[in-house]
Amino acid sequence: MATIPLAANFDGDFVLKLVPVDSENTMDDVAAAAAANSVGIHVADQPGRTLRVKKQGTDTPYARDTTVADSGLEPTECIEIYFE
Amino acid sequence: MSATSSVSRPVGPILQSGDVAEAVADAAKVDNPDSNVEVRDHGAYVRVEVDGGECVLRRATIEEELGRPFKMSELEIIMSSFTGRIDTGNDEIRFYR
Amino acid sequence: MSTPMKPLKTWSHLTARRRKPSEYEIVSTNLHWHTRDAEQPWEVGHNGFMADFYRKYRNQSPITHSDWGGFRDPDELVYRTYNILQDGQETYVDGLLDQHNEEGHDRGLPPEWTASLLQLYTPSRYLLHTIQMASAYLMHMSPASTISNCAAFQAADSLRWLSRVAYRTVELAKTHPDVGFGERERELWEDHPSWQGFRELMERQLTTFDWAEAFVALNVVAKPAADEVLLRQLGISARRNGDTLHALLTEAAWRDTERSRRWTVALVNHMLEEESNREQLTSWVRKWQPLGVAAIEAYAAGLPENDEGAQQAVGAVKSFQRQLGLEG
Amino acid sequence: MALMERSEWYDVARDTEWTPRYVTWEELFPPELSGGEGLPDDVWRTYDEPYKISYREYVDVQRQKDAGAYSVQAALERADIYNNADPAWISILKEHYGAVALVEYGAALQEARFARWCKAPGLRNMAVFGMLDEMRHGQIQLYFPHEYVKKDRQFEWSHASMFSNNWVSLGARHFFDDMLMTRDMVSTSFCANFSFETGFTNLQFIGLSGDAANSGDYTFSKLIQSIQTDEARHAQLGTPLLQMMIENGQRDKAQKEIDISFWRSYRLFTILSGIPMDYYVPLEARHTSFKEFMEEWIVTQFMRELEDLGLSKPWYWDIFMRDISEHHHGQQLGTYSWRPTLWWNPAAGVSPEERDWLEEKYPGWNDTFGKVWDVMIDNFVNGRTEKTVPGTLPMICNLSQLPIVGTPSQTLRDTSVVYKGRRYHFASEVDKWIFEDNPERYRYQKNLVDRFLGGDIEPADLGGVLEYMGLGSIGPSGDDAHGYSWVESYRKQLADAG
Hints:
Chain D: InterPro entries: Ferritin-like_SF, Phenol_Hydrox, RNR-like, YHS_dom. Chain D: It is an enzyme of class 1 (oxidoreductase). Chain D: Keywords: Monooxygenase, Oxidoreductase. The complex is a heterotetramer of chains A (84), B (97), C (328) and D (498). Chain A is an alpha+beta fold. In chain A, 19% of the residues lie in helices and 30% in strands. Chain A has a single domain, classed as TmoB-like (Ubiquitin-like (UB roll)), CATH 3.10.20. The longest helix of chain A is centred in the middle third of the chain and has 12 residues, at 27-38. Chain C has a single domain, classed as Ribonucleotide Reductase, subunit A (Orthogonal Bundle), CATH 1.10.620. Chain C is 67% helix and 0% strand. Chain C starts with 22 loop residues before the first helix and ends with a helix.
């Protein structure tokens, strides 16, 4: 267990935000942590749709149950979070 | 207000609005008779632009427009900026490219 | 989120004082943000040349003080008042020049004297320029803005008199075209024995980087030496040779010298508030004084109608240093 | 004439070059301080400063300038701008003085370095006037806000900001230390005199003066224009140096230094000028947009100066031209969202009428940045004020020290690089390029996020961050300039619709 800060680019937001997550968190947890700082604050909610996470510069999202530790993301690397 | 000038290769001073600015703008027309002189009033400041890459201002002309003695160095008191290069003399100031 | 906070009467760092702050204090004190961290003056180039330079020559000077920011210019000059002061002074000098020109003053100067002016006066623009450069150095290296400001005005005063020397050079050349005014000054500054003492003194001062040593070398030794001979002793020679204009110009310049000395006294006193500084300051005066004396003697040897000039000048510099509590 | 004109004796006054005998030329002018390496030694005496003035003229003209500026202040104290102007205008004054006063004084040290280290004697003389000018700008811009500190504690930042760890101060220090304080004389002149003073200061000091006059603040309008009259003179110091470099085969080096300093200046001015011009200036006084001011002063006027010298537009011109329509909108959203971190009270600037203005000046604004404001306005209207301030920090650029922003769903992205084991983040490709050009210069600096993650800030929460940045000690945190009164029209819209 370790805290890993990530740079979150939440689709529709105007600024990258620092989001600390845990190495054991799944991508769903990561998406929720990012959403907590964007949805309803700077980005409108889209109820009923699923949030996905991908590493900036890649085309495919992580599987929703991939953990941060397994993703290989390094501290402060940038992830993109978007409604599927 | 348009940002681009209608004159080509414009040069000249940008002055704080007021009596001296008006006199200098008028002097620019007198001292550069063969060039198109555009004076654009932006409220707090006035742009004097002379086309063709040269603008001459003579102390004597400014004195005439102003109706009082004028030292060329006094121009600096109201000249916030200028376009082109500058050549500063005691009786004449020149902007050029 | 916001906590109500009471307005202040003045900048917070001045509120401890009981009295209303002066314009001088409001605009002059605590402006060197790069002294906030003695280890890292700048946000960039942490290991770079300029960080090393400021660490070594300013922050780690052997002269230390717990409160450099506490220094005050005894004249409390600010930019605004400096211009008012000097515009008035320059108007006076313009009047002198104008009036003497009208009266054909220069035409009456004897040839021996114009030769002396070429040897001892018109090349002084080089010396004044080195003092200007050295003062600009102190301006950007001093540990407090109140010190920097004094040095800045001193640099400007040097440019003032450099400009007047240039003016006189051309004016003298017009009346005395065959003497060499405006032509020979660089050669004389570089080679004539009169100037080599000051040249060595200033070249060495300009390559002394510890800010406090640079201050001592300039304001306690070199500038007093230069002012004593160039203004006072050459002024005496001028009077004795009927050059009223020159004598009056040196008296006008002396006002700036007096101001320079006032802040020099104040800064040395400030430094001596920490007794541990005395020995280092004294040793610097001892180190620089021989160069200062040599400069005076070389220059004064050429003073016409003024045999006692060297002795007078050396005595006056020493007396100033005694006043500072720093005997060389 | 009994008194000679300046032109008769001026050349003698600047003829002060001599060959040192007791020390070497290199000792007198060390390359790290003097710069201009590779230029032939005899080139320095050819330096010809274009804007000439004598000491006698200087003290006369400057005395008159100050007499004008200070008398306007005295006359207008009766007008009581502090109580009568729009509160957003007062915020502009707070932001301006806090960001500008002490660094202007710092520029006096930069000019003093020119007066000591430049190898061209003519420049050394003119730099003495430059040094005095910058003392003026520091002092007068401390004197004026000092009047206000008795009314409003936030004006304390006019003096204190550069000593603080506020993120805006970090950005300003990083910029000015990089551009003005730590480069050799020649490079500094390109960055400070040419890019910064010939280019960007016009934007704030002349452009904003128009807005000030429109807003009724004639003191400020006259003050900043008067300051710029000094800049117009001493900014000229750099141009002949650029020419010397170009003529001696160092065009590429000169171009690179302009490219670096141009971008750095631009990004700083998005905060200093961009936000106030488009969001704080009261709408009735807001005639010209930041983008239009940029087009007038930079895209047209400054670029003409560059091209006259035979230099090119910076390589990132396309990026820049797009950026002037968007970056400062992101920074406005950022500064407003994190308003407790500011030393001034930001205006939102997004009432329905103001949004129409923004949409007109920046077509597409409503569909991009406007969408983010919609969410915030919804929170305000429905009383969810706590949701209008984010609970985390923004990512911050390791060069500009500004939050990494972009147009929503279009240009927001991270630009990062790993150098010697540490990851650095940048707000653009250009910022990254500047870093990679000289990583040793920048690598040790820690931005606010680095400090937060590195444990320098305790407690590691927003409260700790505010305390670290001096909010609550130097002055109170920023809050909406108008006390959220602008939300009323939206509340009314909602009520009418409902």
